[in-house]
Specification:
The complex is a heterotrimer of chains A (312), B (285) and C (366). By secondary structure, chain A is of the alpha/beta class. Chain A is built from 11 helices and 14 strands. Chain A is elongated. The C terminus of chain A is likely disordered. In chain C, strands 1-2-3-4 form a 4-stranded antiparallel sheet. Classes of the chains: A alpha/beta (312), B mainly alpha (285), C alpha+beta (366). At the A-C interface, helix 2 and helix 3 of A face helix 1 and helix 6 of C.
């Protein structure tokens, strides 16, 4: 059995409209974020992964299982979709209970697992209410509960933090992290880049149906050669340090920070810069911190895709 | 200090005159209508029979040609019965066209919560309904009384002014008969689509009202040995009224006056249903 | 594995039944099924009222009449002759008409109406100036004769329209309704084989339609027989194949649910708009008598008509084309009809399974 979620040359067309094109991926365990603007193919990729749509070309396997074999696939996979609807007339509890019964659980197991999932998403008080009367955040949580209910190995979560309040967000993020630490595959699509940055082990950047980058964010950043690396140095006497940096020719551009307590420099060779850093420190300059300023998802997104429709 | 920057600039251009504002809806709805290939094909089919009738009128006035092909000149007579049959045939097609077109007029607006968007503008419910129903009214007119009048004019051209004068009432019947049928179909289609919201279910429901109503009416007549079942048969009621308008003998299961009253009652019920549903807000229970 | 699948099927059935039986949008199906019941309830009331009236007339009349007595009255007889034959009428109406016979003359014409009954039949005689002009012998309610009307309503209204549209509503809703509600993904996200899901949904639809329409059929039969005296009812049920007919109607209803259900299930998967397939199936069922023998077999109504226990005679004066629609030129034997229908349904289910395997969730195109 493979230990990856594998896309081999996968394309999906909706008539004449491109969903995704020539996608090759091998997603490892941990939290993987799908990042891209609206219509870039994130949901299509998730739907392909879960067999809700079929690829026009190529092959997909989730831990060795084909996506057109739902009976085996969904024993491993839990998918929280963006579709904001459920079968009519069900309460939150019934929604989970029937889902678990459809999964083949007997009545007692389904009941226990349903309550366990409800507790995990903090919906116990509202479990007896009809889903149609739920708020947006509650619907999001019950969908997450559905995805988590049968303790799947692979969690596919389409915009899972949408509509959740800050407290619920941090609870959910903790839940995802815990799942990742147990060795689960957590695939998340999100627009909220600073959250993606915090939780992701790796990212897949999508634009117009194409995968434009994938991997750990630092590795992706280091491969983007056309944009110099930005480094923020918090220190005293930033002007003296800036002069030294320009003189050394390792920095191509230096900007003094507005509060006069640091500088932002750009370098084309970050490794050489770090090696030479001790030599470049001027006497009397006190360094507080040295941090890369653009090896986060937001910067990579801006470099590779542009800054449209990004929630910072 | 807070900065209040006014970025919204209201529209200052020319507004469509109030009287014609409902035509904006007509324009856009009509455009949607012809996006569907099925509907375009169906509309095209609706013109076959008028063309056939045109050929009949031409042949009826070319006795020599008929003699050549061995058909008696008296076989085709262009009179009130001819126009009654024309309207009956086009009436069936008008119903089929309504079943496809009608439900798509209001239900998408209701399903997508678009009514508040319409009514937050200087646009009344009556204008909304007029705009939507005009799509059906104009489309169905194109296949009923307009070709009917063209046929009448062609026949009058061949037969002369005396025929035209003597049969002017047929033209009137053609227009009145068509307009009643168009009004019933439009109101029924819109009322059903407003109540069920699903475009396709509303279409199926329209079929059901017509066929099921007729079937149940017949069952009532057979079981209870009565004629009151005809009140459930819209097509029968309409045929009674048409027969009366065109001076044709009919079965007379119920009187013409009863048929008129029943049809007006149907229109009233449909209007009531529409007025209950077409509102700027929706109560979600 | 079979236990696992069976458990899943039971879960699907339970969920679907909850949706079908208790959904507000499905109320019209109950109405469709209830309408013929109401109709036969009205019939029962009318029959019992008529019977009561005739019994009362027969009791109140001066002479105990037989059917032969009523038959003896002919047009042209005088009222004295009729009174001599049948006695004083139970019900007697009269009025005088002032008729203009020529320009200045008005003639008084006496109209009389006599009404007799033997308890089961009623005789209406209209006299004009003392001479019988119209003689009408009302048959009264007759269970055997009305059982043909019942068969007609069953074949032409209940089967072809009520059950047809009821199955359309329930079976189209199984997949197409879920797509329109944007909730089909709920099922597709569960570890369940699509074929098992399809089978579960079909069984749920079948249970729902059978429950609703078989109940309707039983209630119709009950209401139809209710008005008759127990002796007449027993005679019809146990000595005139009434019970067999009632059982046959229930069987046909179940088979119709299977046949139409399979058709509409498949139509709901292949077509976005049910108007087109509904119209096609209606037309296909309608033109069935004109089709070649091979094609006839791919129709539900062909088998159902073959199974119908009572042949509905063509009403006099009916258009030949309609008459042809009513008659079943070459009916098949009952086992062949049942097997044929089940085979057609099975083929439809197999095609549905192939289709459901390839179904995708793409709500935006709806």
């Amino acid at each position: 059995m493979s230990d990856r979620i594998v896309f081999e040359d996968v394309s999906k067309f909706y008539g004449e409209i491109l969903g995704v094109n020539r996608v090759n991926l091998a997603i490892p365990p941990g939290i993987t974020s799908l990042v891209g603007p609206n219509g870039s193919g994130k949901t299509t990729l998730m739907n392909l992964m879960t067999g809700l749509v079929r690829p026009s070309r190529g092959k997909i396997q989730v831990l060795g299982y084909r996506t057109d074999d739902p009976e085996n696939l969904f024993k491993l996979v839990g998918y929280s979709t963006q579709f904001d609807s459920s079968p009519k007339g069900l309460t939150g509890y019934q929604f989970l209970y029937f889902y678990l019964q459809l999964s083949g659980c007997d009545s007692r197991t389904a009941e226990q697992a349903a309550w366990r999932a409800i507790e995990r998403v903090n919906l116990v008080a509202d479990a007896g209410r009809n889903i149609a009367g739920y708020s947006k955040g509650m619907r999001q949580r019950i969908r997450l509960a559905q995805a988590l209910a049968h303790d799947p190995k692979v969690l596919v979560l389409d915009e899972p933090l949408n509509g959740l309040d800050p407290l619920a967000r941090s609870e959910m993020i903790a839940l995802f992290r815990a799942a990742a630490e147990r060795g689960c595959y957590v695939i998340i699509s999100s627009h909220i880049l600073h959250e993606v940055d915090v939780i992701s082990d790796q990212v897949i950047l999508l634009s117009n149906g194409y995968v434009v980058a994938e991997g750990q964010i630092q590795n992706v950043r280091s491969e983007i050669q056309e944009h110099p690396t930005q480094i923020l140095i918090r220190c005293t006497r930033p002007r003296d340090l800036a002069a030294k940096m320009i003189e050394s020719e390792l920095a191509s551009e230096v900007v003094i920070h507005n509060d006069n307590r640091g500088l932002l420099l750009k370098t084309r060779s970050a490794d050489n810069f770090y090696l030479a850093l001790n030599r470049l420190i001027v006497n009397g300059v006190e360094i507080e911190s040295i941090t890369p300023a653009d090896d986060d998802v937001l910067s990579v997104y801006e470099y590779l895709i542009g800054n449209e429709e990004v929630v910072r | 200090m807070a900065v209040y920057r006014r970025s919204y600039k209201p529209y200052t251009g020319v507004l469509t005159a109030t009287w014609w504002r409902w035509l904006v809806l007509f324009r856009y709805s009509r455009r949607n209508l012809f996006r569907s290939k099925v509907q375009t094909v169906l509309l095209t089919i609706c013109f076959f029979y008028p063309l056939l009738c045109l050929a009949f009128i031409y042949l009826a006035h070319n006795v020599g040609f008929l003699a050549q092909i061995g058909v008696s000149g008296n076989l085709i007579s262009i009179d009130n019965t001819f126009f009654f049959r024309f309207l009956s045939a086009q009436g069936v097609l008008a119903f089929l066209l309504t079943a496809f077109v009608g439900p798509g007029l209001i239900s998408p607006d209701l399903a997508n919560g678009a009514l508040p968007l319409y009514f937050c503008r200087p646009f009344s419910r009556a204008e909304y309904l007029a705009g939507k129903s005009s799509v059906l009214a104009i489309t169905l007119s194109q296949i009923t009384w307009i070709p009917g009048l063209i046929l009448f004019a062609v026949q009058a051209g061949f037969a002369g002014p005396r025929w035209a004068w003597n049969h002017l009432w047929v033209a009137g019947s053609l227009i009145l008969g068509s307009l009643i049928w168009i009004a019933i179909l439009s109101l029924l289609a819109m009322a059903l689509s407003a109540w069920v919201k699903w475009r396709i279910v509303a279409g199926a429901l329209l079929l059901a009202v017509m066929f099921f109503g007729a079937g149940f009416g017949q069952a009532i007549n057979a079981v209870l040995r009565t004629q009151t079942g005809y009140f459930l048969n819209l097509a029968y009621l309409m045929t009674e009224v048409w027969s009366n308008l065109f001076g044709i003998d009919s079965e007379h299961g119920i009187s013409v006056a009863d048929a008129w009253i029943a049809l007006l009652l149907y229109c009233g019920i449909c209007l009531f249903l529409l007025m209950r549903k077409v509102r700027a807000y929706e109560v979600i229970r | 594995m079979k236990t696992f699948w069976w458990r899943q099927i039971k879960a699907v059935v339970r969920l679907e039944l909850k949706k079908t039986f208790f959904a507000k949008r499905g109320l019209w199906i109950y109405l469709v099924a209830a309408l013929p019941v109401f109709l036969f309830m009205a019939y029962a009331m009318a029959v019992s009222r008529e019977q009561g009236r005739m019994t009362e007339m027969a009791h109140e009349g001066g002479k105990e009449l037989t059917y032969q007595d009523l038959l003896a009255v002919k047009p042209g007889m005088t009222n004295d002759e009729v009174v001599a034959l049948l006695g004083k009428p139970d019900v007697h109406f009269y009025w005088t008409e002032h008729r203009h016979t020529s320009a200045q003359r008005i003639e008084d014409i006496l109209h009389e109406k006599y009404n007799y009954s033997d308890g089961q039949h009623s005789l209406y005689v209209e006299f004009v100036n003392g001479k019988a002009e119209t003689v009408m012998l009302g048959e009264g309610s007759n269970l055997i004769r009305d059982s043909i009307v019942f068969a007609g309503v069953f074949q032409f209204f209940f089967l072809r329209l009520g059950l047809f549209f009821g199955c359309l509503g329930i079976f189209m809703n199984l997949f197409r309704g879920e797509v329109l509600d944007r909730s089909l993904h709920f099922y597709f996200l569960a570890p369940i084989r699509r074929e098992v899901l399809m089978l579960g949904k079909f069984l749920a639809g079948l249970i729902a339609t059978c429950t609703i329409f078989v109940t309707s059929e039983v209630l119709q039969t009950t209401a139809f027989l209710w008005a008759y005296r127990p002796s007449v009812r027993n005679l019809y049920l146990y000595h005139n194949h009434g019970l067999e007919h009632a059982a046959a109607y229930v069987g046909i209803t179940v088979l119709a649910c299977i046949g139409y259900g399979a058709f509409f299930l498949i139509a709901g998967m292949f077509f976005r708009n049910p108007i087109a397939p509904t119209a096609v199936i209606l037309i296909w069922e309608g033109i069935n008598p004109f089709l070649p023998a091979v094609l006839k077999q791919f129709s539900v109504i062909y088998y159902l008509k073959s199974l119908s226990p009572v042949d509905v005679p063509t009403p006099p004066g009916m258009h030949p084309v309609l008459a042809l629609l009513i008659s079943n030129s070459n009916p098949v034997s009952a086992p062949v009809a049942v097997l044929g229908l089940l085979t057609v349904a099975l083929i439809a289910l197999c095609v549905s399974s192939l289709r459901v395997r390839r179904m995708e969730i793409n709500y935006t195109t709806e």
